[in-house]
Amino acid sequence: YDRQWPQRQLFLAGKISVERLGGDRFEVGFPLRYQLSNGRRHASGKVWKTLVLQKTSAGDLEITKVNERKM
Question: I want to staple 31 with a disulfide (CB 3.0 to 4.6 A). Which of 9, 13, 17, 24 is the partner?
């Protein structure tokens, strides 16, 4: 991915949603706009990015799942 798209720009494209899944697990979702380039090649679009976070025993949040789908 780094070789294919060495220049990348990502932008938050709307509101962030947070949902408690139970216990110390949370789902965070947000729209993300991207612009990619490699010389003369360009791509752009929008995805919905979802992260599942789990609180660790130290109290930190750890990403346990990542998903994205084109909008």
Answer: 13
